[in-house]
UniProtKB/TrEMBL annotation:
Organism: Bifidobacterium catulorum
Protein family according to the UniProt entry: Belongs to the triosephosphate isomerase family.
Stated name of the protein: Triosephosphate isomerase
Enzyme class, first EC level, given as a word: isomerase
Pfam family, one: TIM
One biological process term in Gene Ontology: glycerol catabolic process
Pathway: Carbohydrate biosynthesis; gluconeogenesis; Carbohydrate degradation; glycolysis; D-glyceraldehyde 3-phosphate from glycerone phosphate: step 1/1
Reaction catalyzed: D-glyceraldehyde 3-phosphate = dihydroxyacetone phosphate
EC number: 5.3.1.1
Gene3D superfamilies in the record: Aldolase class I (3.20.20.70)
A GO term for molecular function: triose-phosphate isomerase activity
Complex and partners: Homodimer.
Keywords, alphabetical: Cytoplasm, Gluconeogenesis, Glycolysis, Isomerase
Subcellular location, record wording: Cytoplasm
């Protein structure tokens, strides 16, 4: 794919009002710049409590809204869970699944992640599947681990849409992040494995100015974190993506 994907999860960092204000500011910046359908694919994943309001703010500026998790079942006695059917009704089109925090803090295993991926597809949501190796190792071995996680999650399905966010878990908070060469090699292998499936491979490690340019076109975009807690920082990555897309089209 040639259109970059820029996604952001706000986790549980912001109180409700700050989330809404953030999205209003971002919508204003996008409107000022006139960035519409021709720009990169953008997505913001707020908390459940603000999802409906955020969707109303961001939909007019062509930003997709996603959820940070979902229940593997659509209905039933599942106290505290959120149905994919309801997420879709609220305007969500993406759902993050398999994040390392869900796996380590809430003990979700491969089987649960696979059930949630199928629930996402069943409800018309695109899974944003998080993968990554736990220990520092060679890029070839890391890629094999990621491919195993993807295979476990998607099973025999070869056609449904899928976004994959690669984040080497050993690099989270590390003094030395994964090198661009390492990330490119792993993501190249992931992209090759996805074949003709409608998909995108994002890098979810520490993001900053220039990272997308160093990884492109081995990655299709970035899955942003705290770097983008300022809407202007989010826009800086959008601008970088637009420059890369323009350059890509000129080389064809």
């Amino acid at each position: 794919m040639t259109m970059a994907v820029i996604a952001l999860s706000l986790k549980m960092y912001f109180p409700r009002r700050r989330t809404v204000d953030y999205c209003r500011t971002l919508a204003g910046l996008l409107t000022e710049r006139g960035i519409g359908d021709s720009g990169p694919t953008m997505a913001v994943l707020p908390d459940f409590l603000t999802l409906a309001e955020v969707q109303g703010i961001l939909a007019p500026v062509n930003v997709r809204v996603g959820a940070q998790d979902m229940c593997a079942d659509d209905r039933g006695a599942f106290t505290g869970e959120v149905s994919g059917s309801d997420l879709r009704d609220l305007g969500a089109s993406v759902v993050e699944l398999g994040h390392v925090e869900r796996r380590t803090l809430f003990h979700e295993d491969d089987g649960m992640v696979a059930r949630k991926v199928r629930a996402a597809w069943r409800n018309g949501l695109t899974p944003l599947l998080c993968v990554g190796e736990t220990e520092r190792e060679g890029a070839t071995a890391a890629a094999e681990r990621c491919l195993g996680q993807i295979a476990s999650a998607v099973g025999d399905d070869r056609e449904s849409p899928l976004w994959v966010a690669y984040e080497p878990r050993w690099a989270i908070g590390a003094s030395e992040p994964a090198s661009a060469e390492y990330v490119r090699e792993v993501c190249d292998r992931i992209k090759q494995s996805l074949g003709e499936r409608p998909s995108a491979v994002l890098y979810g490690g520490s993001a900053g100015p220039g990272l997308l340019s160093r990884l492109w076109p081995s990655v299709d975009g970035l899955f942003l974190g705290r770097f983008a807690h300022d809407p202007h920082a989010f826009m800086s990555v959008v601008d970088e993506a637009i420059g890369l897309e323009n350059g890509d089209s000129e080389n064809k």
